[in-house]
TrEMBL record:
Name the record gives this protein: Xylose transport system permease protein XylH
Location(s) in or outside the cell: Cell membrane
Main location (coarse class): membrane
Alphabetized UniProt keyword annotations: Cell inner membrane, Cell membrane, Membrane, Sugar transport, Transmembrane, Transmembrane helix, Transport
Xref: PANTHER family: ABC TRANSPORTER PERMEASE PROTEIN YPHD-RELATED-RELATED, XYLOSE TRANSPORT SYSTEM PERMEASE PROTEIN XYLH
Pfam families: BPD_transp_2
Transmembrane spans: 12-32, 44-65, 72-89, 95-116, 123-143, 163-184, 205-223, 229-246, 274-296, 308-327, 334-353, 359-377
Amino acid sequence: MDEFVRKLRGGELGSLPGVFCVVVIWIVFQVLDHQFLSPRNLSNLSVDIVGTGLIAVGIVFVLLLGEIDLSVGSVSGLAAAVFAVMNVNDGLPEWLAVLAAVLVGAAIGGIQGFFFARVGVPAFVVTLAGLLAWNGLMLHVLGASGTINLHDRGVVYALTNRYFHHTAAAYGLAALSAAVFFLTSYQDRRRRRAAEVPYRPLAEIALRTGGIAVIAFAAAYVLNRFEGLPLALLVFLVFVVGLDYVQRRTKYGRRIRSIGGGVEATRRAGINVVWVRVSVFAISGTLAAIGGLFLASRVASVGQTSGSSILMINSIAAAVIGGASLFGGRGRPWSALLGMLVIQSIASGMLLMGIQTTVQYMITGGVLLAAVVLDSLSRRSQKTHGRA
């Protein structure tokens, strides 16, 4: 607890503002409409966050470098269009069409990363050009029809329409989450203790595990009251946990954060900055493509409005609102999940109340501005306390 208070005084707010936003939004909308926290609405909410959330996870990695990727919306739309044309129009096997779509996203990200890291073109300019170019290519790929409906028995369609109805699935995932968190925390404690560096007391680990268990089992209870555990949510959590491990527990992840903290110092340490930058943009493109497939699955089609600029704005906003810093060096894949909960909760509440989308945009814009202001103030406070 003392460490937590010390971090707060030093300006390290982390995900606290995002958690506060979710709690306030849920309380306000539940008071205004009692259907907001119903099992059906929360289950739909857990699926709605996945497509854009995956794109936002890629944005988190780019933000860790202190850069931005404006092309993710167009890349997601293009990847979905490539899949739909190859699978529906040309009759290629679904797995091959999915692989081609994901490879398109990865290749685009790598190309943009090359122009940024090797050629020296600012990432803002490269990805802004990509936003326009890839959107135009998507329209060209779709052709005159403009809209392609997906097969309702395909794997991609099932991504957001498949549920594990047995209650053991959701409760099992909740128990596994708590167990994995405790074991990894305990192992980290042992390593830090052996290295004679500060470590968390067992009581704190137990308290954190208990908190996660309560949240996980409450979520499982709510999901089981509707259709059960959604496949989309399970896939999203696997991506978030896996990429969070990569970011925090591997040399590659530490190199990404190091570049965000200072490029020149990282280069002098012997790290291949160009390769890391290119690979991060490739990750962003890959996750944009996968997110595009989930978004196409949600509406069971790919059309000219796929990959709109609003998608790009929401993915960036989700990453920032969830706690990723625009200044680089701070952020986790969990930031994308938390930020998407904020944005999609606002959208869901507005829809239930019949409020126009324009109001939703204004509220989301206000929340984003508040998050950026907090990020700036936090960074200033950290500099004052010698932490940045």
